[in-house]
Each structure stands twice: as C-alpha cells, then as structure tokens.
Automatic annotation (TrEMBL), chains A, B, C, D:
Entry keywords, A to Z: Iron, Oxidoreductase
Top-level taxonomic group: Bacteria
Domain Sulfatase-modifying factor enzyme-like: 174-302, 327-401
NCBIfam families, per database record: egtB_TIGR03440
InterPro entries: CTDL_fold, DinB-like, EgtB, Sulfatase_Mod_Factor_Kinase, SUMF_dom, SUMF_sf
Domain DinB-like: 8-138
Species this protein is from: Bacillus carboniphilus
Pathway in which this enzyme or protein is active: Amino-acid biosynthesis; ergothioneine biosynthesis
Protein name: Ergothioneine biosynthesis protein EgtB
Amino acid sequence: MLEKYLYTRNLTLSIVEPLQIEDFGVQAMVDVSPPKWHLAHTTWFFEEFILLNNKPEYSPYFPYTRELFNSYYETLSKPFSRSKRGLISRPTVSEVLDYRQAVDEEVTNLLNNNDEVDEKVYSFIQLGIQHEQQHQELLMTDLKYNFSINPLKPIYKEMSGHSSLPRLKWYDFEGGMTTIGTNKKEFSFDNEQPEHQCFLYPYSIANRPVTNGEYLEFIEDKGYETPTLWLSDGWQTVTEQKWNAPLYWEYVDGNWHHFTLSGMKSIEKDQPVTHISFYEADAYARWAGARLPTEQEWENAFKNEAIEGTFLENMLFNEEDRSEKNVFGTVWEWTSSPYTRYPQSARPEGALGEYNQKFMSNQMVLRGGSCASPRNHIRLTYRNFFHPDKRWQFSGIRLAKEESAL
Amino acid sequence: MLEKYLYTRNLTLSIVEPLQIEDFGVQAMVDVSPPKWHLAHTTWFFEEFILLNNKPEYSPYFPYTRELFNSYYETLSKPFSRSKRGLISRPTVSEVLDYRQAVDEEVTNLLNNNDEVDEKVYSFIQLGIQHEQQHQELLMTDLKYNFSINPLKPIYKEMSGHSSLPRLKWYDFEGGMTTIGTNKKEFSFDNEQPEHQCFLYPYSIANRPVTNGEYLEFIEDKGYETPTLWLSDGWQTVTEQKWNAPLYWEYVDGNWHHFTLSGMKSIEKDQPVTHISFYEADAYARWAGARLPTEQEWENAFKNEAIEGTFLENMLFNEEDRSEKNVFGTVWEWTSSPYTRYPQSARPEGALGEYNQKFMSNQMVLRGGSCASPRNHIRLTYRNFFHPDKRWQFSGIRLAKEESAL
Amino acid sequence: MLEKYLYTRNLTLSIVEPLQIEDFGVQAMVDVSPPKWHLAHTTWFFEEFILLNNKPEYSPYFPYTRELFNSYYETLSKPFSRSKRGLISRPTVSEVLDYRQAVDEEVTNLLNNNDEVDEKVYSFIQLGIQHEQQHQELLMTDLKYNFSINPLKPIYKEMSGHSSLPRLKWYDFEGGMTTIGTNKKEFSFDNEQPEHQCFLYPYSIANRPVTNGEYLEFIEDKGYETPTLWLSDGWQTVTEQKWNAPLYWEYVDGNWHHFTLSGMKSIEKDQPVTHISFYEADAYARWAGARLPTEQEWENAFKNEAIEGTFLENMLFNEEDRSEKNVFGTVWEWTSSPYTRYPQSARPEGALGEYNQKFMSNQMVLRGGSCASPRNHIRLTYRNFFHPDKRWQFSGIRLAKEESAL
Amino acid sequence: MLEKYLYTRNLTLSIVEPLQIEDFGVQAMVDVSPPKWHLAHTTWFFEEFILLNNKPEYSPYFPYTRELFNSYYETLSKPFSRSKRGLISRPTVSEVLDYRQAVDEEVTNLLNNNDEVDEKVYSFIQLGIQHEQQHQELLMTDLKYNFSINPLKPIYKEMSGHSSLPRLKWYDFEGGMTTIGTNKKEFSFDNEQPEHQCFLYPYSIANRPVTNGEYLEFIEDKGYETPTLWLSDGWQTVTEQKWNAPLYWEYVDGNWHHFTLSGMKSIEKDQPVTHISFYEADAYARWAGARLPTEQEWENAFKNEAIEGTFLENMLFNEEDRSEKNVFGTVWEWTSSPYTRYPQSARPEGALGEYNQKFMSNQMVLRGGSCASPRNHIRLTYRNFFHPDKRWQFSGIRLAKEESAL
C-alpha cells in the first residue's frame, strides 16, 4: 500500500515536472483549477481524512488549508470560492511542495507503524490514491486548456507515435438480462456499486471511436448549422458559444488544426475525434443514423476486454496505439445515460457521501478512460461524468444502433 | 372528432374568460408565455399542420404568424424570440380571437367534408387537441406566475372546497420484470412509446403526496440551510436564488402564506405541498430518509388505478378532493428519472420529431397530472418533463423506498 | 393656472388616443416605461405633492399607488422595481383613466377654492405641469421604441410634410464673459439656476444640425469600424452592441430605412440625423474635423433666437419645417458638457432635491428640445440630460469649432 | 535624460523586489493588471515608440509582444484581451526581466550615440518615463488589491511611522478670473494644456483631507443606508455592491480594520480616509454640509504650495508625515469635475492621441498625487481620472464650500 501511495504521489510530481513556476497558478476558466491547487488539494485530502482523523497530535500544516484547498466538501468547512483559485499567489509552489513532502512523511510513518493502521485507514489511503489519480487526469486536461489560450501556444512536451484506427465494424448483442456494476473486493467507487441486474434489448455497438475524418464530414455537411440534429439545450449552446468545431480546432490557411500538448498540429483523419461535448456526440450520432450507447450497453459489450490501450503513463496525448480490441484509454466515450444512482446502492456516510452522489443531476456518463487516465485507475465498471456541454476532457464518440447493422 | 376539437377549443376560451385585456400580454419571466400567445400559438398549430398542409388554397391568416407564433419548430421557420413574447402588443386580443374563430371554421369545414379527411389529418387533429390541452395547463400556471408578481395580488377566481390527505402508508412491490410505456391504439405521445420490458428491484411507494405540514418540518429543521441534503447543482440554485420555501410562499406576521389563484391564503397543513423544484423534492426525500421513485416504479405501482382526482375542469387549484386511491391530478409528482428515450423508440419525421425528443437532456420526468391538467389528457404512461430547477408548475413529491417499510 | 393644468392633462390623453389597450402595458427595454405607467405616474405626482400635502382628508385613490407609481423618490417610499413596470396588468387602463379623472377633479376643486391655495401650491402645480410635459415627450419616445421591436411595425399615425435643411454655415462668436442660466420669475428647473457668469474662448457653431446624408458619409467612410474616432467607453459600446448605424436604421435591399411613428420609411438625406448617442455624435464630430459645443457655447450662441420650430403639438415626428433660424425643436442637440451643478446653485429641500440633482454624474447635457417636446416646455436655458449611450430620444448633432471657419 | 531613464527603470524593479514569482501573474479583478504585465508593458512602450521608430534594424524582442503588451492603442495593433492578462504564464518573469534589460541596453546605446537622437526621441523618452511612473503607482495599487483577496493576507512590507492630521480649517478664496493648466517647457500631459483663463465664484476649501474618524461618523450616522445622500448612479452601486465602508475595511470583533500593504491593521482615526469612490466622496460631502471642489478651485487654491508630502519613494503606504501645508501626496483628492477637454487644447497625432483624450467621458478628475505616486511625477496641474465607482486607488476627500465658513 505504501509503495502504491508513493508511486502515485511521485507520478503527480512527474506530470508537473516540465512546468515553469508561472504555469502553476493559472486558471483559464472556472472549470479548470491551477496545477498548484491540484498539488495542494490532493495533499489536503490525505491530511484531512487520514492525518487529522488518526493522529491526535497532528495539526494542519497550513492553518488556512482546510478552506483554501477543500474542493466541495461542505460537511468539512466552507470551501474557498472555486472561481478564484487562480488568484491565490501564496502559498508559493515551493511551499506547496514542502507541504506535500511533510504529509507524505506523516503518511509513511503511519503506514510503517502497523499499530496505528486499521482497515479504515487503509480504505481511506486507497480512496486518496484513487482521488489523486483523478486529479492527475485533470492536471493534464486543465493544463492543456490553460496553455491553449496563450497566444504563444506553449508546448508541454514533444510527442510522437502514430497508428490508424481500423475500419468501422459493428458488434451485435442479443440483450436480455445482464449484470451491471460491481461488488468486488478490489476498489471501486460507491457509484459503481452494487452489482445489479438490468434488462437490455438487442443492440449493435461500433468496434472503435469516431475518427476526425468522419467528424469532418459532419462539419462539412453543415452539422453545426442544422438545428434539427441537436437536442434543444445543445442547439442553444451551439448558438450562444458559436461552436463550429471541437474545442481546440482552428481553421488556418485552408486546413483544420488543433492545439495539442505538443503545440498546434494538423488534424489527422484516422485518429479519434476528441474534445467533444455530449451535445456534439449526440448530434453526430443522429447525423450518422445511429445513436450513443447506454452505459449498460457499453458495459455489457466490453465485459471481456482487457484494460489495454493508451493511458497517462504512455505520455501520448495526441496519438494512440490501438488494435481493434483496445476499447479502453485514448478517449472517454459519452453514453446516452444520465448519471444517476444504481438500484439498491447506499450512500456513504459523512463527507464521502459528497464524493460522487451529489453530482447525480444534469450530468452524463462517460466510459472507458482516456490517454490522460492512469492505467490502473480504469475499470470496466468505472463511471466518469460531466455536464453535457463540457469539452475540455479527452472525450469522444462510440456509436451504437438499436438493431444489427447486418 | 369535431366535437372533441370544439370542446377543447372552447375550454381554452373559458379559461381566459375572467381576464382583463391587460392580462393577456404579460410575460413575467422567460419560462412563461402571455395568455394571448397561448391563444395564438395553439391556433397556429392547427393552421400550420392541418390547413397549410391540406388546403392548397389556404394562406396564413396573419402574414407574420409563422414566425411570431411558432414556439420552437426550427424545421418550419425561425421562431420569434421567446423572451420577447410579452412585448408584442399587436395583433390585439380581439384580432387573435378572430384568428381563432377563422381557423376553427376552416377546421370545421375540413372535418365536415369527409372527402378531404384522411387518417393523417385525423392524427394531426388529435395531436393538435393534445397540444392545446398542454397549453391549457400552461395558461393556468403562467397566469398564476404573472399575477403573483403584481403587488395587488389579483384574484383569478374565488374557489372553495377542502379535504384532507390520508395518513401516510407504504405500498410494497416485489419488482421483477414489468411492462412500461404503451402501444395502444388510443393517442399517446411518441415519448411514451413503445411498450417495453424493464426489470425492477423490490420497492415501496407512498400512498399519497407529501403535505405542506410535512414540508414545513423540513423547513423548520433548516432543510434549506443544510448543504449535505442537496444535489450539488441544487445547492447552487438554492444559494443563488436565495430559496427558503416553495415558490409563492411568504412568511407574513409569523405565519406562512402562499399566493394562489384566489389570492393570498394561509398554508393548509394537510394539503399536498406544491410549486416545488426537483431539487427540493430530492432534498426533502433525503431528509425524510426516503427517495423519489423512478418513473418505472411509479408506473408499475399505479397500473390499476383509475384516472380520478382533481383536474382542470374542477377549477380547484388550491384544494383537492382525494381519497386514498386518487393518485392522479392535484400535483405532478417528480420522479428520480431523467427524461430519456425509451428503448426501441422511433423518432417521428419532420417537425414532429421536435415535439418531444429534442428535450431529452437535463430534464426530469414528472408523473400523474395536476389540478391544471385537463382530465382526459392524462394517462398512466404520460411523461411530463421539466428542468430540475423549475417550480411554477403544480409539482409535488411522492416518496419511495428501496425496501418495504414494514 | 387651472386652464394650463387642464390643457396639459388633456394633451397627455390626446397622445395616447391612437393606442390599443394592449399597447398601454409594454416596456420593451428597461429605459422605457409603459404608457399606462406614464399616465399613472404623472397623476401620482399631483396626488403626492398637492393632494396629500394640502387636503388633510385626502387618502390615496389606490392604496398601493405610492410604491407602484413612484419613479425614483426614495424620500417618499420604496419605488416599485423599474424593470418590472411592464409586468403589471392591474390596475387596468380604464382604472388608471378613472384615477386621472378623480385627481383632476380634486385639483380643480382645490384651485377653484382660493382659500386653500397658497404660493407653494401654485409652484407645485407649475412643477407638476412641467413634469407631465417631460413625460409627454417620454410617452412618444417610449412608444416608438415599443413599436419598433414588433415585427408588424405598427403605425402610430400617418404623417406627412417635408422641407430641407439649409446649406451648412458657421456662426462665429468672440467669446469673453457671458451669462448662463436663469433667475427669471417664469418657471425654470433648479438645474438651470442661478444665472451666473462664465468665460468663453472664441468659437464657431453650425447653423443647423447634421443631416442624414452627412451622417451616411461617416458610415460609408467606415466610421463605425475606426476605433480612433471614438471615446474609449464609446468604442466598447459600439463593439458590444454591434452598432453600425443610428437606432432604428435598417439596411434593406440596398438602401437604408428607419422605423418611424409612421412605419418603415426610406432615409431622407436632407433631414437631421436622429436617434444618435453622445458617443456617435462625438465620433461624428471628430471625423468631420469639428467638435460638439459646450452647453455654455450653445446657450450663448442662441440667446436671441425665438423658440420656434417643430414641437410635439405639430405631430410631425419624422419631418420638420425649419428655416435657417429654427434652432429649437426637431432634435435635441448633444453638447460636450457633462451634466453638473451650476456654481452657487442650491438644492431644493425634501423629495424635490431628488428631481434633478441626483442625476449629476455620468450624463451629458442636450439642448434645444425636439419634435416630441411640448412647445411651451422649452426654454433657452433648458438642460436635458441622458447617459452617453442612450439613443431612443430624438437626439442629434450640432457641430462647433474652436476657431472661425473663415 | 539617460540618468533619469535608468533611475525610473530601476525604481520599477525595486518596487517588485519583495514579490515571489507567483505574485507576478495575478489579476484579481479586471481593473488591475499583473505585475509581470506592468513590467512588460512599460518596456513595450519604449520598444514601440522609440526603438521601432528610430532603429531601422530593430525587430521586436518577442514576436508576439505588440499584441500581448499593448494596453489600448488601437492605432498600433489589436491589444490582447484586458481581462485575460492574468492567464498568461509565458513569457516567464525571468524572460520579461531579460526583455527589460535588452530594451534598456538599446535605449542606452541610442542615448549615448548623439547622432541618432533628435528632439522627438527625447520627447518620447520623457513621455515613456512619465508613463512608467504612472505604472509604478498602478503596480502598488494593483498589488494591494491582489493581496487583499488572499485569505493569507500577505504582507508586502512592514512599515511604520505616524503623525496626525491637523484640526480642520477653511481657506477662503475670492474667485474671479484665474489661470488653469500649463504651457510650461517642463513636461506635462496634453490633458493639462494649454494654460487658459477661467472664472471662479468665491469659495472655501479645507486645509486637509477628511480623516478616518470623520468618515466613521458618516458610517455610524447610516450614511450608507440613506439614499438621499447619494447620486442616483452611486446609490445603485452601493446597493448592488453592498458597500458599507471603504474598500479594504472589515469589521472584526467590534472594531474596524483595513487591509494594508503591511497586513490587516486597526483604523487610525486621525489619518486620511482612503480607498473611497467618487460616489462616496460626494455623499460624504453632502452629509457634511459641504461639497467637493471643482478641479479649477483646487488648482487655484494650491498654486503656491510646494510639492511636498508622502510619495512612492517614502514607502509609507498607510501612514503619512504631513504638516498643515502638505497638500500633495498621501491621497488623491476627488474633485466634482468630470474629466473633459480644456478649451483650445489640441489632440496629439497618431497613437499618442489615444493616451489621454479618449478617456474623456464618464470619469472624474482627481488632484494632488498619493503615497504611491513618484514624487517628481506630480505637478500642480496634474489631472488624474477614474470612473466614479473605482476605489482601489489611494483616493480620498477634500471638502469645499460655496462661501466662507467664517
């Protein structure tokens, strides 16, 4: 457990290694947080749930931490205003790194001293690791957004590597009763529990995500100008935000380019389209004569797939290496399922009840992980969720159909 | 059919009978429409879908009607800005009533001339009737909102009548496979179709809606000040809107009152709480140690109930007459189900594809009809839907539980 | 005095004579008020300042009047929210007309009963008449705005008549000490008082306002796209509001038209440009190599001109009849003077202190009256004032220069 | 000239010396700019107006500089969005310091090489120095605002020193013709020119600014809750912004404190009140039975005063050392004069025409300099200007009266 803890904590540091101090404070829109805040908040999580609960003599490293680095746990304290996270120059980056180190030492001592460690501590450490993994993904996506609005178009890291998506095929499923969710001993979030039964009608699902080339056809067919392809709230968003392409795309000198963590690049037609909102995914599917899968259809379809693909550790944020069978990684896949409670599920007590369940309105489920997800963070039953207009995650489209395409 | 048509058209006129001309133009918030607009829009629906499609010689009564009184059918024309419906003094009320009469005459002629009427015309008349019934309900709820912001607190109609809700009990259901939705020959909306199978876990559901008295306990227990009771988006709404009670409630001289269509009245503790958002319904249920039912649980529970209760025709908007078995009417009941597509359902072609399906995001399903719903508009399978923060409908709460309360 | 009172009260009624009841309630933007509100507010003014102060037995006609029809006199009561004046359907138009009549009868009785009338009452009646004249102008300009947003483009009144503006000439003035403002026995507002000395440098002023034709040259020379012509706040307004022509102008089928109280009309090149903001007037003057006059320069230049021209009573809102010497009427003329206090001026006590002086920030002075000003309301020393971005008044441009154009 | 240039450039660096790198990027509201931006923008000014115009071989140090560090000169390029200055992490602080040094070397070479330097170059260097001095003041005030929103309340520098304001007295002036503005050979901005004649009525002016103690009486007398004391736009601001004290004041444990560049401090009653908007200054003056002076009255009153007092170089941002005669420094003094053009003044050509004159609407003149103004930047005729709701400058109140208080 200690090894896993330290591995995760160090992976976070390696993510921010290419940054300048100035990069740590930026919050370019309210949805993202500054890198420094991510570093501090993930540390606060261990301090709050492990150290303060288990070390009677421990007092917070920074006196103001409990407000400043609390994200949204109203049970614990009044969180500092989310929209102002980018305005807080102190504590400095160096002070936050010291904070990380001090908490790491305390946690290490705790874990090395077996007397103090009970099952509950282990389970919170486990949760804290999973929590930090989620923030590793957000660090990457937030950083990308922050860099994108700078006219210098800073480069996080030069990356190379390339492989093409296979030809589109459809996998058919008969439906009937199936098992969704998990009761396994291995870690899972409360929103994936419990394992439960669900009835499905026959359906087909695509063997791979939609490509940039396919999405370009939608754009060129005036997809963004055709209101009948869109959900009503989606069309309002398209109109207000003046969307005409995925986030980060720019039409320059007669060609589509997009901002990547390696700078501005040409669009590669055989790679998966990403930085797509649910509204765009839904409109594209309608245009393509298909639909998005429900999360149950998705989970049922890929029950036996290995968790293989392009993940955070590959540091390939714009490319991919995927055989036909790689259904995990590269891009999150929007489902048609609103994020709601599973039948029979229980709500954890205290602050942890706020972790997942209070977001169960107005958000849509995404499945499968992305190129920014840590590899061992992703599971078949993992449910990611975002509001339907959000585009700054590595989010893409997998098509489904009611009946076999054959 | 003609009889039903004329009955519906006249019922609409009887609703606006107590109004002054000045009342017809008001739009007190963007969600509501002025009564005059409702009168014109429901007429436009028949003109657009029946007369223009079936009478080659027919030209629109007002040349500008197709934009001005189109609500949201982008397929047909560019609808006039929704937020400005209250700023349009011309055509006058009297001109709009003439418009109604002219269209009614044309439709009557059409229906009396059997040669011209095929099945498709009948189905559009049917749809137009259902559509007008929906606007009858909106006329009542919009009117109530418009009046409520006037410091004179105008009275629509004096009403009386009173009866108490029964004691709270729980009905238990075993779950298993059940049939949801409808394929019946009788009219239903596309969003209720098709009949399909669904698997339910055991659950219990309350015999009646939550009362004002019960909801007051939630208020007095600081329900509106306790963030952990709320969904995250709901808590943000409570904070921004400074909600501390249902819409229309005012605390005056030490007692709660509410604005009704009969003016300001004291809160009656044994009547159902209404003008509640989904967020409030969800928070109340959590506080009460229960939850909201899914729409499938609701439909399964009340399969055999008669469609009896207090409806529009009763003109009792603040009271009710309900035996323990009256599950329909009085207040719509929020379910925990986001409004989504039923499996295997098809999307109607053309403008009708916009009628229901483009709203399938960010909205929640309500069931059972209200005191403002026309009686023969309501069905077991009927799905109403609103965004989770909306409160100006007659919307209330029915509780459910995972397991038997016994 | 009674005769003047009744004349003014009746003139107001004659203005609204062409309206439908539906027109009386509309407030198409926050700056305008519904006609019904103007009718009630001007009546409230007499009730509040004359009847309630001088008739001990008098109680308000409507109990809620003091809030609902108070505009901005915080000294008296909490005014009803300005932005919601268009949402108040009750009292009805007919009830407001009854209110007018009842107050008129009371005032008539008062004035006929000499015992009750002292100097102070006369001075308030005088003020109330001037106040109602101001609202007569607003009635016209607000009505025009309300009609303009209706796609039916309603016609208030067909008008005809036409005459051209003379050729541009410059009048030169030597400057030196001059007398500004007034101490005269005849009525004037506190903001025109007292008569005081002021030192002017030599200047020239145009013999007539800028024409539509001249303004078109500014548009065609990309005046609206050239930031260096504009004040900084003005350029921000142009950009945000997407201004590219005066208010009410529309480019249709290759020609500029504008909405008038007689409907949509072609632009007449030899008539004065109007519905211009201060920002546009200032930018036009800079483009033309001139500047706007100060209010002192304006007043000094036209000291000996007769108060002749096109006024409200002419009912010619789009045309004019002006010889070279008509400097009054037709369009208000923006000056370069911010609206501030005259030296040595006193602030009236009580609510009247709020009448003019609390608006002395962020507004610019206009001079000369317009086609919507009652003829005997306008004086040489009259100071009108609006925020620099406002365009719904009949406001135009008169140029000035530092030195003689000769 | 070179000496003065280098002195000014170094003074800027000494201001930011106590900062951490993280502090350089913060923009806590749209009115302020990040310290890094000030460092770069002042350098860009010399690069743009001196180097690019006079060194044919010179190309910009950063290719993107002309947009990124242009403030508002539309003549030159499209300035980068003002509200996003705090989101630009690159170039880094160190790169910006290198940029400063490179430009300083080029300017030094230019000035040392007499052949290249004509009168115009000297005048632009002179202007660039004055420009940088203005940004030195903004650096201090922006920094203070940035720190103030951080719950850690960072300390810029510990400061001490204290002295009391003298007893309030009135200086009387007879008025008559006076000379305002300047034609002097020494540097002045175009908005101070030309020297011109002006007629004044008799007035009195206070010997010192209003103190915290006096302002507290206004607060305690419900000044912030009394609408009749306020200008209309001011009252709207008070209501919307929920103002109840000057900016930075907090009521803690029964006493008023304020945030200073030395952290949170108790209010000292005998020091001048500061961080006051024009609206507050105007309301206070009305409450005190006085008024604000016009800028002409102010300038006429202090024609013979030495430019002595507390300035930037004193590094005493919360205290002061002022004899009765010190009218300059410590706090800017709001006048009742809107910022407008002086008679006979000319507009500089090209980009410099944008320097001052495009701000001549909606702003009020302040006089006298503050504790954050460089000492040799301030003149008798110096006109500072801000919108009337701005409070983050060191702005205070000096009272005037129409007539002698004797």
